[in-house]
Write a structure and sequence with these properties.
With about 100 residues, this protein is mainly alpha-helical. Helices cover about 65% and strands about 0% of the residues. The chain is built from 4 helices and no strands.
Amino acid sequence: MDESKELERRLSDMLTEGDMEESGDADKRERQLIPPKYEVRIQTERDPIVEETLKYRDMAREVDDRYDRYLERSAENKTKMDTNGSDSGDTSKSKS
């Protein structure tokens, strides 16, 4: 067991010493080891999964209805968003 832990430690050392050792800058090396704190999310008006599923359903019949629940949930979320959006007074959007 002790041998496997030693091999794992040596492998870990080899993997972390590669490109980071060449940089020579200790601060830069430490920053590379820290995972990013923030992530970027973009809110879209249309769901690409729903649109793609509907296009596939126009072209062919599905063997199983695995996306039905997702389509139902997305339709419910869209109606909730539409009803919340109607209170804002934005009449330029057409509801379908």
